[in-house]
Design a protein that fits this description.
signal, 3 helices, alpha+beta, 63% helix, Egg_app_1, 3-stranded antiparallel sheet, 2 domains
Length: 73
């Protein structure tokens, strides 16, 4: 019982914390490229675009989409 309390439980807690940190860092790396966050472009068949470009002016994005303009970023 003492071994479980002094060795096993702290080891499990450390392993859990490291696993959570690794997942957060890994997910953050996949979402960013060069410090910019990317997202799937709505209506463009899975194309990727910078999130900031969409969030700055979504109305302009959809106007260009309906006009058939290409995605340029």
């Amino acid at each position: 019982m003492r071994v479980a309390v002094t060795v096993v439980i702290p080891a499990l807690v450390v392993a859990l914390v490291l696993c959570c940190c690794w997942r957060c860092c890994c997910c953050a790396c996949r979402r960013t490229r060069g410090g910019r966050r990317f997202m799937a472009a709505p209506g463009r068949g899975g194309a990727r675009m910078p999130r900031g470009a969409f969030e700055n002016n979504p109305r302009l994005y959809f106007r260009d989409l309906h006009a058939g303009k290409p995605l340029l970023y």
